[in-house]
Design goal:
Layout: E1 9-12, E2 20-23, H1 25-28, H2 31-44, E3 52-56, H3 59-70, E4 75-80, E5 88-95, E6 98-105, E7 114-122, H4 126-137, E8 141-151, E9 165-171
Parallel strand pairs: 3-4, 3-7, 7-8, 8-9
Antiparallel strand pairs: 1-2, 4-6, 5-6
Length: 174
């Protein structure tokens, strides 16, 4: 059986020269790769106590749904601003070239619930940090974060001190 890293397509010089883009779609397009990704992520958090899975748009929905389903947990969505129909809470955060805003339904997390955040990637940690703020603003407790890939060279883990972060694959560079 192949290693999980072997399912990830690496594209040099994208989106700019010197960057190696780690493409998650190659994992999703292979049944064995997808199964291995979900199984590996679940194994990393097997001892974690949580009530709710929060999936980040868009690929966090994919992995989050599978983990929530397999563990009989509810799934809540964290989306880009303007995509949710009911009353929301939102937070904005800085990107390399501007800002972004994410939101979730105001009633999606109940005070005291322990939340597992699931996403495909952590790079600088800005999006994950914003998701933590949203969850905590609703009275939720972040039990942990699990991602498929971590770009360790961008130091996202440093922004999440005090939170458990698990990554199935860790790449040292950008």
């Amino acid at each position: 059986m192949k290693k999980l890293e072997e399912y990830v397509r690496s594209i040099p010089d994208f989106p700019e020269e010197g960057i190696i883009f780690r493409d998650v779609t190659s994992v999703l397009q292979d049944a064995d790769g997808l199964q291995l990704a979900i199984d590996t992520m679940q194994e990393l958090i097997r001892d974690l106590d949580y009530d709710v899975v929060a999936g980040a748009e868009a690929r966090g929905f994919i992995f989050g749904t599978a983990i929530a389903y397999n563990n009989h947990k509810p799934l809540v969505l964290i989306r880009k601003k303007g995509k949710l129909p009911c009353e929301t809470v939102e937070t904005s955060y800085d990107l390399e070239y501007g800002t972004a805003t994410i939101e979730m339904h105001k009633d999606s997390i109940k005070p005291g619930q322990k939340v597992l955040i699931v996403d495909d990637l952590i790079a600088t940690g800005g999006t994950t940090e914003a998701m933590i703020k949203l969850i905590e603003s609703l009275g939720g407790e972040v039990a942990g974060v699990v991602v498929l890939m971590e770009l360790a060279g961008l130091n996202g883990r440093d922004r999440l001190k005090g939170y458990r972060l698990e990554s199935a694959i860790c790449y040292p560079g950008k």
